[in-house]
Write a structure and sequence with these properties.
By secondary structure, the chain is mainly β. The protein folds into 3 domains: 120 residues, Sandwich (Immunoglobulin-like), CATH 2.60.40; 84 residues, Immunoglobulins (Immunoglobulin-like); 92 residues, Sandwich (Immunoglobulin-like), CATH 2.60.40.10. It is built from 3 helices and 28 strands. The strands form 7 sheets. It has a 5-stranded antiparallel beta sheet. Strands 22-28-27-24-25 form a 5-stranded mixed beta sheet. A hairpin with a 4-residue loop joins strand 17 and strand 18. The longest helix is centred in the first third of the chain and has 24 residues.
Length: 334
C-alpha cells in the first residue's frame, strides 16, 4: 500500500515539474548578447538539466533537432550549429547579422519550451563625411552633407558642428535615416567643422571634420578719421581715413570725395596739409565680387582755419553778453 502511494506521489511530482518547466521557469541564457559578426555564441539552459530530445529554431526556421545522441542540422546552419545532447545547449559559430532573432528550444523529454533573443551587429568601420560643395554664399546656398561607412549594421548617426550637436529645426534637415544633413540658407556662422558620429551597440566611429567657406558681406562698415570720431580739423592738418567692413573674402575698397571717385584704393585714404577746399563728404565704397553685394559709409569732414574758430568763439561770447553782464565790453564792441 505504501509503495503504491509512493508511486502515485512520484507521478504527481513529475507532472508538477513538467508543468513548472513549461511555465517558463527554465531560461535560456546567451553567452554573448549583443554579439559581433564572427563571434561564437552558446545558448545554455538555466537551471542546467538533462534534455534527451528536442529542437532549436530561430523564428519560424528550424536549426536542428536531436534524439539521444543523434542530431540533425538543417542546411541553413550546416557547419555552424551543434547541440549538446546532454544539456540541450545550442552552440553557434561565426554568427551573422541574419542570425539575430528569437531562439526557441522545445523538448518533450522533459516537456519544456524556452526562448531567448540574440542581436548580432556588424562593427562600424571607415566613417566618411562628404559635402556637395564647400564654397557657399550666405543666405543664398544650401550645404548638403552625407555620412557613410564601409561596414556596419543598425546604425545611428549623430551630427556635430564643432562641439555642438545639430538637431532638426528650421534650417536644419535630417533625412535618409539621419545619414544626410541639409543646412538651408547658410550663414557666416555655419562654417564648421562639421562631423558625423556613427554608432551601434558594439562599436562607433567619427568622421573627419569638414569646413565650409562662406562668402558674406560687406556689412557693418566703420569709418574713422585720425582714429577719432570727430570730423572737424584745422587747416594744415594731416588726415588719415580708415575704413573697415565685415566681409569674406575681404571687400574691395574704393574712395570718393563729393561723389567722385578718387585715385585711392584699400582701407586707408591719406590727405596732407589740408585746406578749406578739402572740406566735404568722404565716402568709402565696399564691394564683394563673390556675393555681388556692395555697401558704403560717408564722413562729412569740416576743415577750418584758426580765425574761423576765433570768430565762432567771439560770436558765442557776444550771445552771452546779450543776456548777462559782460565783463569785457570793449571786446564785444569789437
Amino acid at each position: 500500500m505504501e509503495k503504491k502511494s509512493e508511486g502515485t506521489l512520484a507521478i504527481v511530482w513529475m507532472v508538477l515539474i513538467q508543468g513548472f518547466l513549461a511555465s517558463g521557469a527554465v531560461e535560456v541564457k546567451p553567452s554573448i548578447n549583443p554579439a559581433v559578426v564572427g563571434d561564437s555564441v552558446t545558448l545554455s539552459l538555466s537551471p542546467s538539466m538533462n534534455v534527451k530530445s528536442g529542437s532549436w529554431a530561430v523564428g519560424e526556421s528550424l536549426i536542428l533537432t536531436w534524439l539521444g545522441d543523434q542530431q540533425a542540422v538543417f542546411p541553413g546552419h550546416s557547419g555552424r550549429a551543434a547541440v549538446n545532447v546532454l544539456t540541450g545547449a545550442l552552440a553557434l559559430t561565426s554568427v551573422r547579422v541574419v542570425d539575430s532573432g528569437v531562439y526557441v528550444l522545445q523538448s518533450s523529454d522533459p516537456d519544456l519550451r524556452a526562448t531567448a533573443s540574440i542581436a548580432v551587429f556588424e562593427p562600424i568601420s571607415n566613417v566618411t563625411l562628404r559635402a556637395n560643395q564647400t564654397k557657399l554664399v550666405e543666405f543664398n546656398s544650401a550645404a548638403v552633407f552625407t555620412c557613410s561607412v564601409s561596414s556596419g549594421s543598425s546604425l545611428s548617426v549623430l551630427w556635430m558642428n564643432a562641439s555642438s550637436e545639430l538637431k532638426e529645426r528650421d534650417r536644419v534637415q535630417l533625412t535618409d535615416g539621419n545619414a544626410t544633413l541639409t543646412i538651408l540658407n547658410v550663414t557666416r556662422h555655419d562654417q564648421g567643422p562639421f562631423s558625423c558620429r556613427v554608432f551601434n551597440p558594439v562599436s562607433n566611429g567619427t568622421s573627419d571634420g569638414v569646413n565650409l567657406t562662406i562668402s558674406y558681406g560687406p556689412d557693418s562698415m566703420a569709418l574713422t578719421v585720425n582714429g577719432q570720431n570727430t570730423t572737424s580739423f584745422l587747416v594744415g592738418s594731416n588726415l588719415t581715413l580708415l575704413c573697415s567692413a565685415r566681409c569674406h573674402p575681404p571687400a574691395q575698397l574704393r574712395w570718393a570725395f563729393r561723389g567722385q571717385l578718387v585715385n585711392a584704393t584699400g582701407p586707408l585714404l591719406e590727405r596732407f596739409s589740408v585746406d578749406e577746399e578739402q572740406s566735404g563728404p568722404y565716402s568709402c565704397l565696399a564691394f564683394n565680387s563673390h556675393t555681388n553685394m556692395n555697401s558704403n559709409i560717408t564722413a562729412h569732414i569740416m576743415i577750418a582755419s584758426e580765425f574761423v574758430g576765433l570768430v565762432t568763439s567771439a560770436s558765442t561770447y557776444l550771445l552771452l553778453c546779450l543776456t548777462l553782464v559782460c565783463p569785457h565790453r570793449d571786446f564785444v564792441k569789437v
